[in-house]
């Protein structure tokens, strides 16, 4: 099938610990606000830093409200001709935990609210989608959802796709990462040489992808690259071979020169293994050109399955505002050949590469750009 249609990000909204909407989120990043909180309730006998949404509303209320905002800001009257794609790492696990801890029993747990497609189940009850599909590939879940959105739009299968990246905090995930000894007791510092670890976080990110741009500010999903290095169940390849391959595949898919990329929104979790591997990959691939690199997880925390979608929103806003997001005060760098800035930079640029890497060497890179007509 011929692939000739473009895929545009026309509308979006986000909720995270860094803000209850996308504008607050981007402002928090540029102003380098402290958005991560210290918690002693998730891991027994230990304080960990987490990214918790600060709202009186329930997580599901926020989810429905965010999707409705995107619909109202769009050219659509409803989602009847729209494919829903959900990317989530834990699905409805937090809802299961809530009922279990309340009742000390599994009897009242609704099995339909637990699996990965629980989010789609919830949204379908509120909105009328043409169809839905759910992705769960750990921390690349919503990045892969975006990649699939581009594919079905480029092939003319759908004109409208709603991508929802979502994960709520749960004891299972926080304690699971604690068992891997990768959690930080303070806000994470990605790419800082003396980094301690990552911050598990929650977020909701919603993007409407369409085959036509609705405004001059619409941003195109120019390319998507995948790879699987299968080096280890939880550790990336130390030389970053899989990460470099995913980035190169995205560049090839977009059919641009890598020198045109001025900013990389890195996966940058703040763990020793990930950051070192990703820096090696960036240095390997961008051996002559030097794009700026930062990880916005310093402000949002690692939102797991939602990370790809929320960072696509951040990257989209960076292009629209022509601002390169800052790093969070890197004092000592691990590699001198990678370019960082501790301040937001006003620059003219047309392309952003956004990375998402997951357990098992599951790697996805998304290349976003301003359309040629902009």
TrEMBL record:
GO molecular function: 3-oxoacyl-[acyl-carrier-protein] synthase activity
Domain Ketosynthase family 3 (KS3): 1-370
Any Pfam family matching the protein: ketoacyl-synt
GO terms under cellular component: cytosol
GO process annotations (BP): fatty acid biosynthetic process
Stored SMART domains: PKS_KS (SM00825)
CDD domains membership: KAS_I_II
Presence of the UniProt keyword Endoplasmic reticulum in the record: no
Keywords: Transferase
Transferase keyword on record: yes
InterPro entries documented for this protein: Beta-ketoacyl_synthase, Ketoacyl_synth_C, Ketoacyl_synth_N, PKS_Beta-ketoAc_synthase_dom, Thiolase-like
Family as reported in the entry's similarity comment: Belongs to the thiolase-like superfamily. Beta-ketoacyl-ACP synthases family.
Protein name according to UniProt: Beta-ketoacyl synthase
Originating species: Halarcobacter bivalviorum
Native organism taxonomy: Bacteria, Pseudomonadati, Campylobacterota, Epsilonproteobacteria, Campylobacterales
